[in-house]
Design brief:
two-stranded antiparallel ribbon; 7 strands
Length: about 250
């Protein structure tokens, strides 16, 4: 029975990934071109997600085999650096505060040629919407990977506002709720982040291919188990000193 369950899981998720990719392939390719052009201009891509939505940032930011020009804007840095207190982060209305986006932006060294890539799997929190507005007001390109069916179901007002602001959207095309199995009357195994992380890796590959087609060498981090990785990565990252968690 357990083997059948595992088989069903992989077959189900593979079908979901295949369908999502087929529906979003053109949008992923278009996003890759836009992000590539930002990187070619020495822009850093500012990654942002709240809570579980940090998953996409972690999939892209400073990973072996990934691209150097990503920086994670992390809500956890706010209390870590004493910008706000830990007690404030525990308040029920914390993510509805209207000052968090400005505090995040001020905490990092965001330059004029940087762009923003946001990930929202389920709910558009106020801080995400405010960050998108602030980035656009400052002249940055803003991109979004999301699950439209989910964000429209959970907060239609914020979702519509965000959709109107961003420069490009990649939709995961996943049903909401996104739990894909029912066991003993319990819905289990969310699939949004699995698809989003696969989109992230496909985006990286398309960016690499596009940059090479433009005779531009992408800055790719080496794994530490490769001889010479320390020096290779240091040579690449030194150009962006002060722009990561600066």
């Amino acid at each position: 029975m357990e083997n059948n369950l595992l088989k069903d899981y992989f077959e189900t998720t593979n079908n979901i990934v295949k369908r999502s990719f087929e529906l979003s392939q053109d949008d992923i390719n278009e996003l890759a071109v836009k992000v590539s052009e930002d990187m070619i201009k020495d822009g850093v891509i500012q990654l942002f997600g709240v809570g579980h939505d940090l998953a996409l940032s972690m999939e892209l930011g400073f990973r072996a085999g990934g691209l150097v020009q990503y920086h994670i804007m992390d809500m956890r840095d706010l209390p870590l650096r004493g910008v706000i207190s830990t007690e404030e982060t525990l308040a029920e209305d914390y993510l509805k505060r209207d000052d968090l986006a400005e505090k995040l932006m001020a905490m990092y060294n965001v330059e004029a040629n940087d762009a923003f890539l946001l990930y929202v799997s389920t709910e558009v929190h106020q801080v995400t919407l405010d960050l998108a507005k602030l980035a656009k007001a400052n002249g940055h390109n803003v991109y979004l990977i999301t699950n439209k069916s989910a964000v429209e179901a959970t907060n239609i007002k914020n979702a519509q506002e965000l959709f109107a602001i961003v420069d490009h959207i990649v939709d995961l095309h996943i049903a909401y709720p996104d739990q894909i199995f029912s066991l003993d009357n319990l819905q289990v195994s969310q699939v949004s982040n699995l698809v989003a992380n696969m989109f992230a890796q496909s985006l990286t590959m398309e960016i690499y291919k596009y940059m090479k087609s433009k005779n531009y060498e992408p800055a790719v981090l080496w794994s530490m188990n490769i001889e010479g990785a320390d020096q290779h990565n240091k040579n690449l990252t030194s150009k962006y000193d002060g722009r990561w968690n600066s």
